[in-house]
Model the fold of this input.
Amino acid sequence: MKRILSILALAAAVVAAGAVWPRGLALIASDADGKTLFSHPVGIGDSFTIHFLHSAMKSPVGEIFSVTGPDEFTLRETVYQDFGFGLPHEELEGRKMAFADGKIRLSGYAVKFTDLRLRVGHIADHALLFDNGAVVVKLADYQRRGGEVRLRVGKVRGWW
Done:
């Protein structure tokens, strides 16, 4: 009996340690009040995409980010298929525009973020794509349309 209690105590200590010690990084989405809506595990060097429909052109746009630190992510490129209002139509200094597979790819960005706030669009149908699109998280599943979502990279605690 004493041995069983010791094993249970050890198991409880391991579980408690996992709940306190940081286990890794995640892209964390929260609402305007700071309540976590969801999180997805990421590592430094991982990419994710904010995917949406252009409000005027109704064509897909992807903004591709990389996790560059424990509290930071960087916009790397934008991919779209139509030149629409608000979308770049020429190369700017340090950026490269390429055309392939019916898409326009503008790369060479180095815009760093500690957080990014956006509103869930009525038309845009915002989604986050992870693992090269294998995992799709629709923001409207977690926040009402028009509601704010704050994205940040942070340490998560506990077990995955």
Notes: Helices lie at 2-20. The mean pLDDT is 82. The radius of gyration is 20 Å.
